[in-house]
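hiii, so i know i said id send this last week but things got crazy w the move. better late than never?? heres the sequnce for the chain we talked about at the cafe, plus the structure i predicted for it. fair warning i was half asleep when i ran it
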Amino acid sequence: MFPLDRKKILITAGSTRGYLDVVRYITNTSTGKLGTEIALEAMRNGAIVTFLYGKDSLFPVIKNHTGIRSSQLKLIEIETNNDLIKILQKRLRDKRYDAIVHAMAIADYVPAKPKSNKTPSGKKELIVKLVQTPKVISVIRNIWPGALLVGFKLEVNKTKEELIKIARGFLKRSKADLIIANDCKNISRSHHTAYMVSGDSDKPGTLKSKKEIAKGIILYLEKGLNK
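okay and structure toks below
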């Protein structure tokens, strides 16, 4: 029997879009690669994964991974923050999940009034009003209060101490069980350093690649779900 045999895990990954008009949008640099690694590691350990991913983001392809069955993976593509929240609140809210890994990079600000046509390209200046979006991790916690919840915190040019302090604050506000804290300066195609911040330990664990992060998260879930 695998450590996560028949455990149901919801994973979000990739990026969302905020539309300016029918053809233009703002987004972020998240690719979905880390979320994909987490999903594959979970399925290798027996989990049944529901994977929500942003349009054009990466998602798990299991045909080249022995030991993973197609029945272990359900893929759901979303595009905007509103799409994601609707899926969570209407399509998935009655589902039971043992754990949720919210790795998706949500658009924190989106255009206030997207235009219903294409904005003319001849303008020398375009002023766009952005509005703050709801915190999706709070929506998730409200729907599934009993699930183990892993969140992510990304900062820019912080020291390790500053990053961990920010992550601890976010851990408390979001009511998550574990926060993966990382800084843009420590992320590249071949490198990704992150810290595991939870209420269980005063000393955050250090992870040095996307594969290490995935293994660290799944090990944490294994221990939490098999107590």
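btw The longest strand covers residues 178-187. thought thatd interest u
miss u guys!!
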